[in-house]
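On clarity, I found the account of how folds are encoded harder to follow than it need be. An entry of this sort, consisting of the sequence and the corresponding backbone structure tokens, reads as follows:
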Amino acid sequence: MTRGRGSASILVVDDDRLNRTLLARTLAALGHDVVMAANGREALDLMRAREPDIVLLDVVMPELDGIGVLERMKGDPALRSVPVIMVSALEDFDSVVHCIELGAEDYLQKPFDPVLLRARVTAGLDKRRLQQLERERVRNVFARFLPEGMVDEVLLRADGDLRLGGVRVVSTALFADLRSFTGFAERTPPDRVIAVLNRYFGEMSDAVLDNGGTLVAFLGDGLIAVFGAPIECDDHADRAVAAAREMLRDRLPRFNAWAREQGYAHDFRMGIGMSSGPLMSGNVGSERRLEYTAIGDTVNTASRIESLTKELGRPVLVAESTLDLMKTPAADLVYVDEVTVRGRSGSTRVWSLA
């Protein structure tokens, strides 16, 4: 890892001991932390153990040459972004051109010029720092709607690209809505309304994320989440029910206790609806603004089931499709009724938390 603006971790790979030592000494004199490898296989092992900021890679080596090392690096998601400067003799120029085509940043000719070495290493490190800043920015974007443990896996699959491609998965969609909030908002100062909403969303978002769900959107006083997307999991239905259970039994009472402490003579209620099945998820938008979304009949059904919680007098309604996909039967789910969901031709059986 980079230690500072003028200091970095550099791997020097060269089968010639003299050339390897001269490069290492020159770079160490510039304040860098230098590690050396005598062949390609040793270099790959060192890179996987401790990812360097930049690699100086000899083209011609026995066993595994520089081209082979570069190909393996570019095929490894964990190493493909590490800048590589090829080190070659004059007669190896065609090989250097091939390495540049494979993704090497630059090249250095033997015997090397110390001034040129410093300039090319500095340029490579500047690019590396920009990559790291961009990756951190992308990571922060994904961290807004994904559980912490899932962010790195999504970035690895997306190769650091913020435009995470759309995926079609079987998962569970959940809608949560705060009841009677419109009336509360009409008689409450705007700054206090936002403070209440932020407190509510903080509690409910944590219930989603702590149970491995993905936050899709906040709509007014409502929340949309999916479980099992964009990273698939077999127990998405169980996770969604667990999140609803936590919202209703733990987080809503805690939120209401806080509201009473703030002087609001109002006990808030909520409705939660969920449905399971295939849906499509991914980032949509433009270069200037992207948002994660989930679409499909499963999402629409969850929304419409949530709206039935008022009519049926139940805070939570779970579609039969979710119950069928649960890995562990929930003893606290009780059958409610067979209902007609707007937009669907057939009836849907729903359950609720006891």
User: Anything to note?
Assistant: Residues 1-5 have pLDDT under 50 and may be disordered. The chain has two domains: 9-142, 148-353. Residues 114-142 form the longest helix (29 residues).
